[in-house]
Amino acid sequence: MDNMNHPYLRLLKENRRITSGFQYTIPSSDTYPYQWLWDSCFHAIILSHFRIADAKKEILALLSKQFQNGMIPHMIYWENIKRMGFPKIKWGKEDTSTITQPPMIAYAVWSIYQKDKDKSFIKKVYPHLYHFYRYLLTERDPHGNQLIGIMNPDESGEDNSPRFDIPLGLPPVHSLKENAKRRFGLVAQNIECKFDAPFCMRNFFWVKDVPFNAIMVENLRLLAQIAASLGYSEDADFFASEAENIVSAMRKFMLEDGLFWSTFGENYQKIKVKTWAIFAPLFAKILTQKEAEKLVKKHLLNPKEFWTEFPVPTVSISESSFDPQGFWRGPTWIATNWFIYKGLLNYGFNGVAEQIKETSIKLIQESGFREYFNPQTGEGLGAKNFTWGVLVLDMRS
Q1: Can you give the pTM of this predicted structure?
Q2: Which residues, in sequence order, are bridge partners of residue 23?
Q3: Distance CA 226, CA 65 (A)
Q4: Domain spans of the chain?
């Protein structure tokens, strides 16, 4: 389908930019004027349904700034847009950040390949994917325990989530300014340790995050399929095996009382804060059917936890850290709804998935393409003309 006149798709077109020969999509012209890793993966997934060429360009722009060690940075500063007021973060590099984000790129590439079966494209990008996922499997797992670590909360994509309060030494209730100060402090420490991931994680911040690892599992499985499509059978076997190794490690180190908890430190201390992260394993089919049924009934559909007027809040309303307007501390985000929606379909919860899809669409219809929404009132918050809302076009039961 080649129809960019759909009202949702017009937003992607309006937020499109071309710099130095590369085409990419910014999340929001008034707030986020650069390119972000998992945002671009979301954009490519949507574009793959409508205009394959643009989806491929989104991916190629993202890969163009890959580091020598294989890491793909979470931000690319294509243009020096100081007038936007976006906080200037000293990454130690001029044109990119020096941390990464949830590894959704194999999923995006596979979504593209499913539409046109263009082997020349996946052959072109495969070496980049290979080195990125190998980087995560080695540098972010220095002890070989099969869990991927992050060295800054921003690498989770959920900058100030309550999951990171304890590792940051913050109380459940604090200001965004206090939180940003700690996170930017980590960047300064990372510059000091030259972004050597094993050393930085051991000494400053070392979290094994549930969504990051669940996303890694699903993406490794798809990377294995990409490798197999290219005839790289050894790579395919390797990545498929690594995916299941992470599943086993998640069960060993994260699972307790039916829930997967993010952990921190060398001893895998569980961070027992209920955020949407407890549903992330659904996306990668990590739970048994019985475990999934219990999770959905006891927590997702529980009006005292996650089943609000406009689900799914990113933090349970039962948590002391819950704030319906507090960035990643309670509001509903369309991207996390997308992950939960996909996960519910994996286990046959089509009716619940449909409700989440419908409320997501309703949020956009009533409040516009906002960055996030109050889960109790539906009020739109944060950036305007924010592209994540377009993900509802990929929600299909």
Answers
A1: 0.96
A2: 18
A3: 22
A4: 7-273, 285-397
What is the residue-level pLDDT of the chain in tens, covering all 397 positions?
456 668 889 999 999 999 999 999 999 998 999 999 999 999 999 999 999 999 999 999 999 999 999 999 999 999 765 545 666 687 878 899 999 999 999 999 999 999 999 999 999 999 999 999 999 999 999 989 999 999 999 999 999 999 999 999 999 999 999 999 999 999 999 888 888 899 999 889 999 999 999 999 999 999 999 999 999 999 999 999 999 999 999 999 999 999 999 999 989 999 999 999 999 999 999 999 999 999 999 999 999 999 999 999 999 999 999 999 999 999 999 999 999 999 999 999 999 999 999 999 999 999 999 999 999 999 999 999 999 999 999 997 4
Best CA proximity match to 331, nearest among 213, 101, 158: 158
CATH placement of domain 7-273: 1.50.10.10
What SS3 string covers the chain? CCCCCCHHHHHHHHCEEEECCEEEECCECCCECCEEHHHHHHHHHHHHHHCHHHHHHHHHHHHCCCCCCCCCCCEECCCCCHHHCCCCCCCCCCCECCCCCCCCHHHHHHHHHHHHCCHHHHHHHHHHHHHHHHHHHHCCCCCCCCCCCECCHHHHCCCCCHHHHHHHCCCCCCCHHHHHHHHHHHHHHHHHCCCCHHHHHHHCCCEECHHHHHHHHHHHHHHHHHHHHCCCHHHHHHHHHHHHHHHHHHHHHCEECCEECCEECCCCEECCCCEHHHHHHHHCCCCCHHHHHHHHHHHHCCCCCCCCCCCCECECCCCCCCCCCCHHHCCECHHHHHHHHHHHHHCCCHHHHHHHHHHHHHHHHHHCCCCEECCCCCCEECCCCCHHHHHHHHCCC
Q: At what angle do helices 119-138 and 210-229 cross, to 10 degrees?
A: 140
